[in-house]
Write a structure and sequence with these properties.
about 20% helix; disordered C terminus; alpha/beta; five-stranded mixed beta sheet; 10 helices; Alpha/beta knot; 60s Ribosomal Protein L30, Chain: A
Amino acid sequence: MADRPRNPRPGGPRGGGGGGFKPRRDGDRPKRDFNDRPQRDFSDRPRRDFGDRPRRDFADRPKRDFGDRPKRDFGDRPKRDFGDRPRPSYGDGPRRDFGDRPRPSYGDQPRRDFGDRPRREDGDRPRPSYSDRPRRDFGDRPRRDFTDRPPRYQGPGPRPEPHFSDRPQRGFGRPVRSFDSRRARTTQADNTSGLFGEGEELIAGKRPVEEAFAARREAIRLLIVPERRAALDALAIHATTLRIPVVELEGGSLTAIAGFDGHQGVALVVKPRQHADVDTILANARERNSAPFVLILDSLEDPQNFGTLLRSAEACGVDGVIYPTHRAAPLSAAAIKASAGATEHLLLAPVDDLAGKLADLHAQGLRIVGADEDASLSYSEADLRGPLAIVVGSEGKGMSASVKRRLDLTVRIPMRGKIESLNAAVAGSILLFAAAQQRPIAAPDEATQTEAKPKRKAPAKKTVAKPGRTTIHKVDASAMDEDVLPQE
């Protein structure tokens, strides 16, 4: 193998000498221009139909059986021995010595001196003058109207991505895939510092956000956790329709912003709500021609109880809720979540002097009613009709002494078990629904009464119960009125 000739290198050593590789010079060859070539259109070409072609069936093909083939045995084959083969040795060859080769030296080469080269002076070069050019007059050009253009984003959060779903797309003779115009536009939030700040209110939870949209609160941005996007896609699409920025952020970041972990992966940042006062609440009741019905909260400490009582008050038709601004739970995102959006349909009046407002309500003709375990009259026996204000005390201390002195009536809630007291939200809800049961249902407006007159109901048909079955009849309370019952 040592004497085996080597293949000569094409073109000689280092590419020198006859007929070797020559580099291609693309600069000398003119380039072909294909811009004018017409594009072929295959949209009208009929497609081949292979539906009628019979498919090949290989189920009847016999399978080959290799079970009887004898296996080859290589156990008796002698092994090759390469121990006596001489190996090539390169130790005896003389090594090339490059120590005596002279190296090129560039130290003696004179350097070029550019000190005497004259510099270019542009000061004497004449500059073009545009003073004699006539100015163009655009006075007659019609101005473009940008009233339909959406307003530019000016919020503190990140700018939403552009949405090109409404822009017409060019087809080039091929069918174009259309994008969904109802798809929500979202933005990833890397920094949560500008998502919620001073002068803004946060509404967390799916139902409260829906009620805020229904009440047409002025929204700033919608915050969504991507992991719960499937259940909140309808809210994101609705926010995109209203041109409200949708920002995606992590669940832990939303928990830190909201202050509690029951946000359900969605929150709406809105402008601060407009609080009402006591006179507005009473005026609203007089406009509806009904006796005022007010809920008063005395220093509640738990935001869950605060929100639960607001939810019960809205369900009972309360005209407004009065609560103190000091030493009480604030109207936070947790309280709004517990109210299930009832805060968007109630008149809320925070006051500094709760005892003084009770005196004003008493002067307006409202009776102040509170719960007391030592009262001689139960809530079911008390007369809770007419102008009424129900007071609910705090969880631990109950009603304060200044508020208790201004009560006109105290009632008790009978307890039959071993527990001595009820939760503040539960006790207040019992009193609210007891008062709502004694109060008449608000009559519709006169215009509504003239347009839609009540129709007499037909007498109910007698039903015969089948044997072996219990039949439950649903009774309508409106059918018990004398003017609706059939005349004999």
